[in-house]
Design a protein that fits this description.
The chain folds into two domains: about 200 residues, Isopropylmalate Dehydrogenase; about 120 residues, 3-Layer(aba) Sandwich (Isopropylmalate Dehydrogenase). The chain is built from 13 helices and twelve strands. A twelve-stranded mixed beta sheet has the order 3-4-2-1-5-12-11-6-7-10-8-9, sandwiched between helices. Helix 5 crosses helix 7 and helix 9 runs parallel beside helix 10. It starts with 8 loop residues before the first strand and ends with a helix.
Length: about 350
């Protein structure tokens, strides 16, 4: 299944010394068995051919334009070549890593805006490698938001959704220290996040009236202020404001009772006040097949829910399940967006 009007998915290289290239090569090699949707990889074709040989994979790598990717995909891995030559070895990022990773992201976003690809699927990056090269954004999510603002001239608030069939979660504050997350938490931030989640769960996932469950910040959601005033003074007013807009929201709820099976059946998305509050549950339930989806962008972006795994790069032991899930979800959601309204 491809995206709108038969468009392929644009897959970024990610950190070249990590497992991203291995996963892409493995999925293409097993494309029929895994029922992988058509994609093209953005990067150095010679580097990818060498990695395939290292992994012992019989993969034909061919330089191709995005327009040819769907046709070519059956017989070769389409690679949209970049000018960045890569010398990084598995597990050993070098001075070529950052430019290759960022250049691949930039090209994928440009392709989607130009109508050459249906969605962006990103392989993992290593933020420490990028920071050493001058990267200033906290992570992928924030960088994509900045690219979208640059392309559209409009403000963008990217929201990180972690999705799996078992659970979907959103952290209201993302890649910041816990003390900073608490300081940043405001009623407006929660409302803005909840509004984007509700809108995009309808627009992208087709849920007519998404049910949002908002976790309290403090243990037991503050116990009426005895364990902290934030839930009474910040979270509860946000829930009330979302309800006033017609959004099905409830909370603040004690986070320690939100994630068992019976509780999960009562909502579509759980919103946590800080990163680990909701990422720990989903990575426990769906570590191998969770998908990172960026809401709030004017294009669709998915990503596997794991890191670069330098220790596995080049060994052939990296599990492609999460990247495959990201590709399949991107194809499904982009096809849904392109489907005519009945």
């Amino acid at each position: 299944m491809s995206g709108p009007a038969g468009l392929p998915l644009a897959l970024t290289l990610g950190e070249p010394a990590g497992i991203g290239p291995d996963l892409a090569l493995t999925i293409w090699h097993r494309r029929r068995e895994l029922e992988a949707p058509p994609f093209y990889l953005i990067g150095d074709a010679d580097f990818l051919a060498a990695r395939a040989r290292l992994l012992g994979l019989d993969v034909s790598v061919e330089r191709a334009a995005p327009a040819d990717a769907c046709t070519l995909f059956a017989k070769a891995l389409p690679v949209s070549p970049r000018t960045h030559k890569i010398t990084a070895r598995p597990g050993e990022p070098d001075e070529t890593s950052a430019a290759a990773a960022i250049g691949s992201i930039d090209a994928a976003v440009a392709d989607v805006f130009a109508g050459r690809a249906s969605a962006v699927v990103t392989n993992p990056i290593n933020k420490h490698v990028l920071y050493r090269a001058g990267f200033t954004d906290p992570g992928h999510t924030e960088y994509l938001g900045r690219l979208a603002e640059r392309a559209t001239g409009k403000p963008v608030m990217p929201v990180m959704l972690l999705w799996s069939p078992e659970l979907a979660v959103v952290p209201v504050t993302i890649h910041v220290a816990l003390k900073d997350a608490i300081a940043q938490l405001t009623t407006r931030l929660i409302v803005d996040t909840g509004r984007i989640v509700a809108r995009d769960m309808t627009a992208r996932f087709g849920i007519a009236r998404p049910r949002l469950a908002l976790a309290g910040l403090n243990p037991h959601a503050g116990e009426d202020g005895t364990l902290g005033r934030e839930d009474t003074e910040i979270v509860a007013p946000a829930v009330a404001a979302l309800k006033a807009e017609g959004i099905d929201a409830r909370g603040p709820l004690p986070a320690d009772t939100m994630f068992h099976a019976a509780a999960r059946a009562t909502y579509d998305v759980a919103l946590g006040m800080y990163h680990d509050q909701v990422l720990v549950p989903i990575k426990t339930l769906a570590f191998d097949h969770g998908v990172n989806v960026t809401l709030g962008l004017p294009f669709l972006r998915t990503s596997p829910d794991h890191g670069t795994a330098f220790d596995l790069a080049g060994t052939g032991r990296a599990d492609p399940s999460s990247l495959l899930a990201a590709l399949k979800l991107a194809a499904r959601l982009s096809a849904r967006a392109a489907a005519p309204v009945a």
